[in-house]
Amino acid sequence: MKKIAIAADHAGFEYKEIIKKYLEGKYEVQDFGTYSEDSVDYPDFVHPAATSVEDGINELGILICGSGEGVAITANKHQGIRCALCWETELAELARQHNNANMIALPARFISSELAIDIVEKFLTTDFEGGRHQNRVDKIAFC
Question: Do the strands 28-31 and 3-8 form a parallel or antiparallel pair, or are they unpaired?
């Protein structure tokens, strides 16, 4: 069973819970928090989730905040993370196919929970195409 990391801030908490429930039984989900709608600092939850993907403990990751930007920026500070901000299913599909994205960021304030689930499903079920894209992905890491 594929292992998935999930994390959110207070703005993404509700969607995190909805997505977790949807994924139950299909994937092994590790929840890195937050655990309520109380105001928090998203890096406190994103960094552990990203580290788990970077270290291979989890295969892929899902991050949620109000805009998706903060969690994406934070995750992408990790050398082994390629986090894509997705607000449409096609973006999630292309992020996996062309960029081998291993995390996605969802903007809870700008998409419905139904669309969030569709995006997550597309992300989790799409494979990296490799081929001509592999050379480009190999050039992403700077250090």
Answer: parallel
Report whether 110 contacts 67 (CB < 8 A): yes
Q: Which of 10, 47, 83, 98 is catalytic?
A: 98
Question: Beta partners for 31?
Answer: 6
CA angle 86, 89, 92 (to 5 degrees): 50
How far apart (Å, rounded) are the C-alpha atoms in residues 7 and 85?
14
Domain extent at residue 134: 3-138
Q: Which of 47, 65, 86, 143 is catalytic?
A: 65
User: Is this model's pTM higher than 0.85 or not?
Assistant: yes
Q: What CATH number should be reported for the domain holding residue 17?
A: 3.40.1400.10
Strands, E, within the chain: which ranges?
A: 3-8, 28-31, 60-65, 83-85, 103-107
Active-site annotation holds for 98 = yes
Q: Is 86 considered catalytic here?
A: no
Read off the pLDDT band of 134 (50, 70, 90): confident
Residue 68 lies in a domain: yes
